[in-house]
Design brief:
385 residues; alpha+beta; eight-stranded mixed sheet; five-stranded antiparallel sheet; 4 helices; 26 strands
Length: 385
């Protein structure tokens, strides 16, 4: 009969609890179905779960969750629930900062020491790792060991930031033949250095602004949208290639420059007609470039538009001048000055032909004069007989 009465009372209490808010430490719970108010003598801890081992605690006044940690009236970061490591997570209502502190290890009911700030979340969403956070979205402090600030693990290789005592940074693909992409967005820019920086490609200690150690005799390739390719490589002459074929090179022994000119690679070969009349119309000039720095010595050369009228083969007209920095010019004229050497030789040949003809003519006249002198001498001898 007593058991029936007891179960009846418990059932009545359960029904009443479901019908109203429950308060612990308060007679008027209004903030939730269960409201707990910390009481004097137990510090800021409102509830503890799992005191038989390493449990958690809920604390007020800077709301805190303690992991294997609780707070009584002892100063500091509270005490360990059981032997082992402990941590707390709390939020500062005044600043809106949320923090996770690691409190180290200790024995059950021993006072925890000052912790290590592992993670900070500021009210604006900024994150600090091992750091109090800053105006940056993410702030990470350097560790005390050789591994530096951060490691990112791949299948085979890791990327290191501020690695070692010299704080070098290594950004790698995660395995052999892995590719590292840096700013692959349309219109993106990549800037290296800010003045005296040196960049090495396959060179661990570059001594020049850009130092490249080529692989399999290939140095630099420049490919446009039409897949036309210029290539520069050192093999031992310094070759310039276009679409995988050599066009010119600089001799590594004495620095001479040579261009492709093999007969077996040419077609539609014909002799240049007489050009002396055109050559005589060329007007060598001296000039200053408008964009030249003051104090620059004068240049000598030709005016491209004038040369184009006489020898259009030596003049290139570029329709995309604005993309080259000349917004006000739609047909930029450029010249192949190396072609003037061929014109000079052709003109010299024509001149030499003319000189040879004059020499033949003069020799003929001289011979005729000798014959005339001989005849005159004979006539004079006959007159004196």
């Amino acid at each position: 009969m007593k058991k029936i009465l007891l179960f009846s009372c418990i059932g009545s209490f359960w029904v009443a609890a479901r019908a109203q808010n429950v308060g612990i430490g308060t007679l008027t719970p209004t903030k939730g179905r269960l409201e707990v108010v910390g009481a004097a003598g137990i510090g800021n801890t409102n509830a503890v779960f799992g005191t038989s081992s390493s449990g958690i605690s809920l604390q007020q006044n800077w709301p805190t969750i303690g992991f294997n940690q609780y707070r009584d009236n002892t100063a500091g970061n509270g005490k360990f629930m059981s032997s082992g490591y402990a941590a707390i997570q709390f939020m500062d209502p005044g600043s809106g900062t949320m923090v996770i502190d690691m409190l180290g290890t200790g024995a059950a009911n021993a006072v925890t020491a000052s912790g290590t700030r592992a993670l900070t979340l500021l009210s604006n969403g900024h994150v600090g790792i091992n750091n109090a956070g800053s105006s940056a979205t993410l702030t990470v402090s350097r560790g005390t060991g050789i591994d530096g600030t951060a490691l990112f693990q791949g299948t085979t290789y890791w990327s290191h930031f501020n690695y070692g005592p010299t704080e070098n940074t290594y950004i790698r693909g995660g395995k052999n033949d892995g590719t590292v992409f840096i700013n692959d967005l349309t219109g993106g820019k990549i800037i290296m250095g800010s003045g005296a920086a040196k960049v090495g490609i396959n060179a661990s200690i570059p001594t020049a602004t850009l130092e490249i150690i080529q692989v399999t005799d290939r140095g630099i390739s420049l490919i446009n949208s039409n897949s036309d390719e210029w290539e520069l490589f050192n093999g031992l002459p310094l070759f310039f290639k276009f679409n995988s074929t050599a066009r010119s090179f600089i001799d590594w022994t004495d620095g001479r420059y040579a261009q492709l000119s093999d007969e077996r690679l040419k077609k539609n070969i014909s002799c240049i007609p007489d050009i002396m009349e055109k050559v005589m119309q060329l007007k060598p000039v001296s000039y200053d470039m408008k964009a030249a720095k003051s104090g620059k010595e004068k240049n000598i050369g030709f005016i491209a538009q004038e040369v184009h009228k006489l020898f259009p083969e030596l003049v290139f007209i570029l329709p995309n001048s604005p993309s080259l920095g000349y917004d006000s010019i739609k047909d930029l004229h450029m010249m192949d000055y190396s072609g003037f050497g061929v014109l000079a030789i052709k003109a010299i040949q024509e001149q030499q032909t003319t000189i040879s003809k004059l020499q033949t003519t003069v020799l003929g006249i001289v011979e005729e004069m000798r014959e005339v002198r001989a005849e005159n001498k004979k006539l004079l001898q006959l007159l004196h007989q």
